[in-house]
Amino acid sequence: MGLFKRNPFGHILFIKKNLIRVFACLTHRRYRGFNSLQIEGSEIITTLPDTNVLFISNHQTYFADVVAMFHVFNASLSGREDSIKNIGYIWQPKMNIYYVAAKETMKAGLLPRVLSYAGAITVERTWRSCGKDVTEKREINPNDTENIKIALKDGWVITFPQGTTKSFKPVRKGTAHIIKQYKPIVVPIVIDGFRRSFDKKGLRMKKKDILQSFIIKPPLEIDYENDTIEEIVEKVEYAIEQHPSFLKVIPAEELKAQEELNRLREF
Questions:
Q1: Is 209 helix (H, G, I), strand (E, B) or coil?
Q2: Which among 241, 233, 246 has a CA at the least distance from the CA of 191?
Q3: Tens digit of pLDDT for each residue in 229-239?
Q4: pLDDT tens digit string along 106-115?
């Protein structure tokens, strides 16, 4: 019976485990080989409980961001410090990692459908359809939030609160409602370099020798009872460095540091 054990969404864990192993082996060199993934804060991963953790991140590609998180999380839990060297860490992956993804994205072809089995919680976006913003927002499907609740109860959930790969778009209030209602530990992640490395879907490599950065920050301090939805949204925007204030004038010394990093991100 153990061979056919399922998670709360009905996925057979034996199949899911082997899918994760295969995709990890196929993608490892995209982050350590063809490109270089610079990780900070992996020690935070080892301090987290096994369930009710919500990772929030800015978003640069449909799939490469999530795949990198599977690598980093499992490597960190296996004792790697800010590194994904030696892919042996994926032999026994953490099986209760889920990620929130648009339903239309995960149904667009065979490969996304297969990737969905590895842990996708598909949701219907109320503000966007077929790659375009809609003028009349649709009602939220209650099954979507219920599935996120189930996933948090079972393990860790990755979400991209802007709901788009475009930078500095507003954080959706739905994420704040989930935080306030289910009270998870909220861990921010800030990524960069993925947009330069991959195409928009994150399936095809555009450039090699790109420095990709992956910063894990300490959990947010949130007063679940007293913080308003607007206050939580603002905390999330600052945490994932997508608040409009980040678009303001940047100090000269910071610009110089960014230029040095950009040199490393060139061919």
A1: coil
A2: 241
A3: 999 999 999 99
A4: 887 888 888 8
